[in-house]
């Protein structure tokens, strides 16, 4: 499954980095709020923590080491996976995690730019790496509910 999942990880990493480059170098020069719809803006944010800014005071190298360790475990999981859905989900998660790790290494925090809202309530801004991570987790959950193709031992 590595031949399926690793190219997906690389592809999603490139998607994430390309969109962040575009936002930083073209769209948000100068930084501003760009209304797209009545529920979605482009913004420029920098998250030094993890999800929702948690652990924002932690040194970037701690968060990077943690993400790299998790990614290594996921590569082993991918190598042992029996389902294409698992390999795809893990690829999306790994690609997204590595995109955010590179941001922390280069910029000291993660570039976020997608801002969804209802009325005055705004979901925390996020990026394409986060989209890949959430979709990857969703695929893993979906795969866990699908019947396994492995033969179950008979109970006689």
TrEMBL record:
Q: What are the alphabetically sorted keywords of the record?
A: Aspartyl protease, Cell membrane, Hydrolase, Membrane, Protease, Transmembrane, Transmembrane helix
Q: Which PROSITE patterns match?
A: SPASE_II
Tell me what topology the record assigns in the membrane: Multi-pass membrane protein
Chemical reaction(s) catalysed: Release of signal peptides from bacterial membrane prolipoproteins. Hydrolyzes -Xaa-Yaa-Zaa-|-(S,diacylglyceryl)Cys-, in which Xaa is hydrophobic (preferably Leu), and Yaa (Ala or Ser) and Zaa (Gly or Ala) have small, neutral side chains
Which GO terms of type biological process are on file? proteolysis
In short, the EC number is: 3.4.23.36
Name the family the entry cites: Belongs to the peptidase A8 family.
Under what name is this protein listed? Lipoprotein signal peptidase
